[in-house]
Amino acid sequence: MPHIEAAAVIDVAAKAFRTQSSQRPNGVDVTASLLALEKVAKQSRDVISSESLLGTWQLCFSAGKKARYQSGQPTGSGFYVPKIAIAQITFAPDESVLTQLAIANELSLGSLQIRFTGPARYSGKKNLLAFDFTHLEVRCFNVLLYKGKVGSRNRAKKQSFAETKIGALPFFAFFAATEDYIAARGRGGGLAIWVRPTKST
């Protein structure tokens, strides 16, 4: 699939999700388009700036780790995230450490809100954003039920986040970033699209 065509499919999918339109590309076509964009990004080695990732993004589409090229053909499918489950991720500068970012991952299911936060760092060379969730907040009807630290993979070794190799951390490998959406493959192998949330979200 040509790069321009693949980008157009993702653009339509992102806009349809934001406007809650039923006229949107199917899961197979979106997954194939993501694979095409990822392939081009790897070949061109274009660098995505950290500034283009900053802000809050809503999870729009997800495909499992089976989304791959096999014998030169795209395989796998994915799904649009139901509106009842609002999953948002936020990247912001870390005011305490200039070379790091801060990450927040929040899931809202009705009146229940679950929010993980922690440090992140971005390697523009390979467009890798590594992170580590260290704090958790749980709220229901906006009442705080729990707030505290969560297990860090490095705490037992007393190793700081900055000293930990990316290979030992969860990460996103970004391959697309526009004003309206970002796309990446996670360490677990899945693909995802996040869009700018609408004001009513």
Structure report:
It is a single chain. This protein is an alpha+beta fold. It has one domain (3-195): Lipocalin. Helix content is 17%, strand content 41%. It is built from 2 helices and 13 strands. It has helices at 3-18, 27-44; strands at residues 55-63, 68-70, 73-75, 78-80, 85-93, 101-109, 112-123, 128-131, 135-140, 143-149, 171-177, 181-186, 191-195. The strands form 2 sheets. An 8-stranded antiparallel beta barrel has the order 1-5-6-7-8-11-12-13. Strand 2 and strand 3 form a beta hairpin. Helix 1 (3-18) crosses helix 2 (27-44). It is globular and about 45 Å long. The model has no long low-confidence stretch (mean pLDDT 92).
Lay out the secondary structure.
Blueprint: H1 3-18, H2 27-44, E1 55-63, E2 68-70, E3 73-75, E4 78-80, E5 85-93, E6 101-109, E7 112-123, E8 128-131, E9 135-140, E10 143-149, E11 171-177, E12 181-186, E13 191-195
Antiparallel strand pairs: 1-4, 1-5, 1-13, 2-3, 5-6, 6-7, 7-8, 7-9, 8-11, 9-10, 11-12, 12-13
Essential attributes:
201 residues, alpha+beta, Lipocalin, eight-stranded antiparallel barrel, two-stranded antiparallel ribbon, 13 strands, 17% helix
Beta-strand residue percentage:
35-45%
| Major beta sheet, strand line-up | 1-5-6-7-8-11-12-13
The biggest sheet amounts to: 8 strands, antiparallel, barrel
Number of strands: 13
Helix content bin: 10-25%
Please name the CATH architecture: Beta Barrel
In total, the number of domains comes to 1
> Could you tell me the mean pLDDT?
92
The stretches of 5 or more residues where confidence is low (pLDDT under 50) are: none
SSE sequence, one letter per element: HHEEEEEEEEEEEEE
Radius of gyration: 17 Å
CATH class: Mainly Beta
Overall geometric form: globular
If helices are DSSP runs of H or I spanning 4 or more residues, what is the number of helices? Answer: 2
